[in-house]
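S1.2 Input.
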Amino acid sequence: MSKKTQLTESQVLQLGARVENILNHPTFLAGDQLISSEQLGRVTNTLTSPRRVELFLRYNF
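S1.3 Output.
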């Protein structure tokens, strides 16, 4: 998402944001799948990265 503002004929100011994983829904990763493992069925990690927001301000001339 971004917003452009024309300052003069040749100058533009752009303000915006980039968002990754905006809903932040985790996908859990179960560790070992071996029956003999002590970690069987235990959630040890997630497959998706956490929410990330990047704000930017750009000046074009």
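S1.4 Remarks. The chain has one domain: 2-60.
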